[in-house]
Amino acid sequence: MHPLFFSQRSFLAVLFFWFVISTFITLLIIELLKAESIQGLVEECFSFITPWYFILIFFCFSNIHLCQRLPINRTPIFFIVIFQSIAGVFTVGLWLILGYIWSAEAVHLGIQYGREIYQLTFITNGVLATILYAVWVLLHYTYLTANTSEADNSEILRKRLLISEIELKTLKETVHPHFMYNSLNMLANLSQVTPEKIHGLCVQIADFLRYSVNYSKSERVTVAEEVTHIKNYLSIEQERYGQRCIVDFNIADKANSTEVIPLILFPLVENAVKHGIDASLEKGYIKIAIQKNDVGLQIEVKNSTDPLGGNRKGTGVGLSSLKKRLAGYYGSNATMVVESDDHEFVVKLHLPNRIPSQLRKPTGV
After folding, report:
1. pLDDT of amino acid 281
2. Gap between the Cα atoms of 262 and 216, Å rounded
3. Rounded CA gap, 310 and 240, in Å?
4. Could you say which DSSP state residue 107 is in?
5. By CB neighbour count within 10 A (0-12 exposed, 13-18 middle, 19+ buried), where does 158 fall?
6. In angstroms, rounded to a whole number, what is the distance separating the alpha carbons of residues 309 and 342?
7. Mean pLDDT of 197-214
8. Which helix (H) or strand (E) holds 246?
9. Pick the residue with more confidence: 197 or 166?
10. Which of the residues 44, 130, 298, 303 has an alpha carbon 20 to 30 A from that of 111?
11. CB count, 10 Å around CB of 98?
12. How distant, in Å, are the alpha carbons of 20, 207, 296 from that of 262?
């Protein structure tokens, strides 16, 4: 159905505008037929021409379906011109046939010269109807383009709002009071046993919190910055777990300068600590590998699991939130694959080498 039918005010406005156009065309026809011997020329033309042209608008309305099937941004101009021309000839032809029938039936309504007017102005009416049809094609494409642009902008805004909401939840999880409580408790214990370690750990905790709090101000960070942030986090956790936590980094040099969204590693490593190290009775490991090639960035975080250990319940913000953030920023170009068995849990990310520009966070968001 044509969009105008959904708005009564717009539909009536267009009908009024079209009535004005039909009236001007009728006056033009009268001017052209002044030399002909037609009695009551003005009354005959207004009775025959005006309603005929008024019906033409409904023929033009049907063109929007063809415009929707041939979107201007995804269809070659050559095909648009060919198919719209064929549709125009067909539509105007039907309208002229309707005029021929109307000229015959008009006699029964007291319009005596309908057939003469039709025959004398056949070419003129064909040309005018073709021009009006072409105008409606342009109007339909303008409307559809504006409507598509508005829908695209709404979708981008929706994704940005979703990203901001998820990032806020991630930030709250990063500076969770439970983490602060454990860190302060660890520092208190160290002050009695090995106070010389406190200064270095305080610096690492401060760097970790500074990065976590300030990340929302950054649109992108490098892999090297993310790795440094994770090293700070794991250093703190290693102090808590001691020999129970073995950490291994395998970061390709050419991956260090690649730009990614902030805090992309933290949910993976935090998940590995909670469900791998903390839940294990024996010592475990966390291995972080990042490689880069022409296809994109490959991130792999794996941790050991202990089937005999406890199954620590998550907080609800973790891998699922990261998956939503990836979808919001990278769309279908990013993937997350989770593999697990009785002894190991692995999360693999594939990211494109660049963040799509239309989804980058605008200033102030």
Report:
1. 79
2. 8
3. 18
4. G
5. exposed
6. 11
7. 82
8. strand 245-251
9. 197
10. 130
11. 14
12. 60, 15, 17
Q: 245-251 and 297-304 as β-strands: parallel, antiparallel, unpaired? A: unpaired
Separation CA 326–CA 122 (nearest Å): 62
- Residues 360 and 365: their CA atoms lie apart, in Å, by 10
For range 333-361, the mean pLDDT: 81
Q: Which two tokens stand for residue 62?
A: 């049907």
3 state SS of 250 = strand
Angstrom distance (rounded) from CA 272 to CA 314:
11
Nearest CA-CA partner of 272 in 344, 187, 215, 196: 344
Mean pLDDT across 343-347: 91
Q: How far apart are CA 355 and CA 222, in angstroms?
A: 12
Residue 300 predicted with pLDDT over 90: yes
> Is residue 305 within 8 Å of residue 343, measured between CB atoms?
yes
The sheet carrying 297-304 orders its strands as 245-251, 284-292, 297-304, 344-351, 335-340
Closest by CA to 228, choosing from 191, 246, 203, 245, is 203
Question: Is residue 358 predicted with pLDDT exceeding 80?
Answer: no
CB neighbour list of residue 346: distance below 8 Å, 6 or more residues apart:
300, 301, 302, 338, 339, 340
SS3 217: helix
Q: Indicate the Cα dihedral angle 326, 327, 331, 332, nearest 10°.
A: 100
pLDDT band with cut points at 50, 70 and 90 for residue 123? very high
Q: What is the pLDDT of residues 45-80, one digit of tens each?
A: 999 999 999 889 888 888 888 888 888 878 888 888
Assess whether pLDDT exceeds 70 at residue 94. Answer: yes
Of 121, 77, 79, nearest to 100 (Cα)?
121
What phi-psi label fits residue 36: left (phi over 0), alpha (psi between -120 and 50 degrees) or beta? Answer: beta
Q: Please state the φ and ψ torsions of residue 225, each to the nearest 5 degrees.
A: -65, -40
**What whole-number distance in Å separates Cα of residue 363 and Cα of residue 115?**
68
Torsion, Cα of 270, 275, 276, 279 (10° steps): 130
